[in-house]
Amino acid sequence: MKLSLLAVASLAALSQATRVKRDHANNDYYVLHLARDAEPAQVAARLGLEHQGELQLADHHVFRAAKTDTDLVDTEIKARKRRKRDAIDGEADIVDGVLLSQKQTPRSGHLEKRIPPRQLVPAGWSMAAASPQQPVDWAVQRQTEVMRDLDISDPIFTEQWHLYNTVQPGHDVNVTDVWSQGITGNNVTVAIIDDGLDMYSNDLKANYFAAGSWDYNDHDPEPKPELSDDRHGTRCAGEVAAARNDVCGVGVAYDANIAGIRILSGELTNADEAEAMIYKYQDNDIYSCSWGPPDDGRHMEAPDILIKRAMLQGVQEGRGGKGSVYVFASGNGAAHGDNCNFDGYTNSIYSITVGAVDRAGNHPYYSEHCSANLVVTYSSGAGDSIHTTDVGVDKCYDGHGGTSAAAPLAAGIFALVLSIRPDLSWRDLQYLALHSAATVADDNAGWQETAIGKQFSHIFGYGKVDSWAMVEMAKDWNLVKPQAWWFSPWQHVKKPIPEGKEGLSVHFEVTTDMLKEANLERVEHVTVTMNVEHTRRGDISVDLISPEGVVSHIATDRMSDEEKAGYDNWTFMSVAHWGESGVGKWTIIVKDNKVNKHQGVFVDWHLKLWGESIDADKATLLPMPNPDDDADHDKTIVTTVTAEPSTATAPPRPDETFVHDTQPTDHPVRPTKPAKPNPTQEDKGSMTGQVEEASGEATPSSETWISWLPSLGASKAAQPWIYGALGLIVAFCIGLGIALFIVRRRRIKNDSRSNYEFEMLDEEESEGLTAGEKPVGVAGGRKKRRGGELYDAFAGGSEDEDEVSEFDRYEDREPSQSAHSLPGERGGDQFALGGESDEDDSDDEARGKRRQT
Ligand SMILES: *[C@@H]1O[C@H](CO)[C@@H](O)[C@H](O)[C@H]1NC(C)=O
Ligand SMILES: *[C@@H]1O[C@H](CO)[C@@H](O)[C@H](O)[C@H]1NC(C)=O
Ligand SMILES: *[C@@H]1O[C@H](CO)[C@@H](O)[C@H](O)[C@H]1NC(C)=O
Predict the structure, then answer these.
(1) Which ranges does the record mark as transmembrane (predicted)?
(2) Closest-lying ligand to the alpha carbon of 534?
């Protein structure tokens, strides 16, 4: 394609800093973001570093230094700032051209593959009994015709129910009539960012795109699987683009190109991860990512600033400016009460978050809920898994599952769409995905009708991807106008969160004029960035209610999250408000769901509406994020607090009017005159500038009112005392919260080992629990499992057992249904099955700490 040719030319001009193998044992590396006029050679000379080249990430350079414990660049920048402040140093200094500096520390195991954890199954319960596996005659006949018409003779095609389901007809991705139109993924490349890709598999070889592939773990051009558990990426790749031939099955886009980018099998720096996200992004169209921070219901982790910048550069510059497409697995932590809004990769507006639905059309126990879920597609559960290609010359695998298997399937379907409409932007693709998705028939999924008449569920997003419907819709899709956005000023709240159902409710009124000025026509994504202080993070939840009354549960309470912290500048995202005008009252309700000794304070928040522009010509590109984007809290003096009107379930709150008169003085009684959020063109150029602008004049339209705290059922006379006392308690809690926060920060800073937590547990556990038994290789025999051990899921410690679906574990069935899997491999699964179902919570817990949840 024309675009690609241009791009190849421009890429060739870039330095190859990304390809350099770095010796972290003997050197330090820094990534510096340099001002355009800062000459890297001069920066290097001034700081005593060696310039190693520019990254693909624009204006970011790699520098090498001899190994020291200190951060040389940071020290120099601080010294320069001091001198400037004290006016000692009036002269220009090239150090001022260093806009961002980050010493690179390789870490390992902080990103996990999204293979599902084991399900708790009662003893004696059999999956097989729950799902009759009888094919329906007409469907079998139709399948045979399809195979004949499309010349498909792949031996496990008939097992690939996700492509054509003969047992539960209709429960598949509805792709065969797309293929019969000759739409099979030509000219589109999907890059699998994972643990490698077996380019020598006969099923992948034909579609392998070497020029889009790289190994960021071993720093070489070939992302070949090396470790015994490097199978995940290959299996994902097979789902996307396994060739139509005589090996295993086919990919959903069986003529698409497939690239491998290896990052999950060793040490990785932020710079490497950032580079991986935009590697050859004029040639790689879609990046499929089946991994993320651990899904244990305790983590809350967002991509580093370099990775955020890379993803933004990807959507702005990738694919000839149409935008790289990032597809992320929603996560497998549902059984741990995890939620994909606590994962900064899945809740990014730049990623399409894909959850799972099983072959019976049900929600599988592992697939995470969240308001950022856009769609779901088929994966393991209900007695089966995804059948795909495996590592090896002609190996197949019938146990692929988790949201890990859903994301690549969706990515492959998006490749079909792009193959007929390469002009679609990254946002067009999101529109098409949600508009063409089919509702999943599950009455318990909390479906809500959105403002544009779509059905949305936090479990299934807008429903399951229907390939045929999506491709048909794409054929005459009118491209949407460029993106625009509107940001509210920071809203200071600084109020204790009452425990119980009711919560603390605040709101912000968005006016037509604000959005007009921001050139925003209609909403797509909504994000809320907020600060909450708390002594137990898992107690808190947050709802966002739009002017149209659509509710996003942007944060949910998490039983396992014991973190003595709240939310620190954390950004939650929702796609449930897609298509709304955005005008009207947006409400945030923060709840502390547990009545216990843990308390918290809702500090501040701001709302961002992202969507389609009114005037395409006025649209601009969002500036790259900066670490201090949230630094202007204190410049804003907008205060909004309201108590929601009592709901039926809320405790009675007598005498609300009285409270107005007797509030402690630190709580404003009068309706405050909030600043007018006044996003102007400059705002769009500078995110931080916007808030300053905002603290200007007042406007009635954005007024927000204080009604106030519940009276706690006390008498009028007692209330001032109670609130006084409460004030003290709250002050104490805030103080405690801050102290704990600082302590924790220290601990994290001083404990570089924390980066290795998962990797170490991984080793400890597999060694400790399978004592005396060595992990075995692909071809070797399998170890016997110890009777009754809790951690049977780790048996072998090397491969399939770690990853088999619940089907493989619990269903009693023949070792091999596939002529192409090695009997030995299936035998391994049988050990894992073992007929036992004595799992308990500790088993689940233990797996949560594994790299592979
Ligand atoms: C797409 O690929 C086909 C062959 O697979 C080729 O003939 C065609 O020229 C390509 N189209 C574009 C627009 O590159
Ligand atoms: C699947 O595709 C067919 C066209 O082949 C279409 O008629 C149908 O509505 C689609 N959806 C389902 C659920 O079958
Ligand atoms: C939020 O971000 C700003 C800017 O980076 C920082 O100054 C502030 O301390 C952060 N707040 C918290 C609670 O982390």
Answers:
(1) 721-743
(2) 3
